Amino acid sequence: MPVIAIVGAGPGMGLAIARTFGAQGYKVALLSRHPAKQESLVATLAKEGIEAAAFRADVLDRASIASGLAGVKQRFASVDVLEYSPADLGLPLASISQLTHDTIQIAFDFEVHGAFAAVEAVLPGMQARRAGTILFTTGASSVYPQMGNEMFANFSIAGAALRAYARALHAALGPSGIQVGHVAIGAWIGKQPGTMPEVIAPLYWQLHSQRDEVEKVFFPETKELQNGQAAPL
Fold this sequence. Notes:
With 233 residues, the protein is α/β, with parallel strands linked by helices. The chain has helices spanning 13-22, 39-47, 62-76, 101-129, 153-173, 197-200, 202-210; strands at 3-7, 27-32, 52-56, 81-84, 132-139, 178-185, 215-218. It is 42% helix and 17% strand.
């Protein structure tokens, strides 16, 4: 059975993505700073017939990402799909006029450097098999940076860098059979009508299974905006 590793897994989008892939026959690895907190999710998935396990990975500690994904491979033999979507409401936010080196650094460490470490851990195996999928999640301000100017410009800028990395990987790895995709979410998940995680999670399966796009941009007003369409700002 194939395996999806979800870095930054939690009871919202992480669980919804796990259910989406689990329903298609995937085993699920849930990686987070506190794997003990994921045991309830493991139990929930088990009741639905989905085999899952929890592993420790702190995206601000690159060594722990490597060791966590090594644990996944030891348990499940391989990682066929990597999904990277950490979230931490405790990290400092900054408007565009209040950016500092420190606020930019923490955003890049969290979103970009952690993603690099996760890819580094799984890519050699995917290249050897000439198969695999890597999926990244950001807010929609990675695509439309003005959306984050007043509140979280540091993460908008870091998200834009992660988006650029995803697109570069997609171009480089696609010919070898490895799909890379990016989901940008323009909503407070679960806080607005039509933004429940189970509504958004199918976009990840579409990027993985159809393999003809690099990006899905989600807004609650229209459910989904493809590349090139104007965003409702």
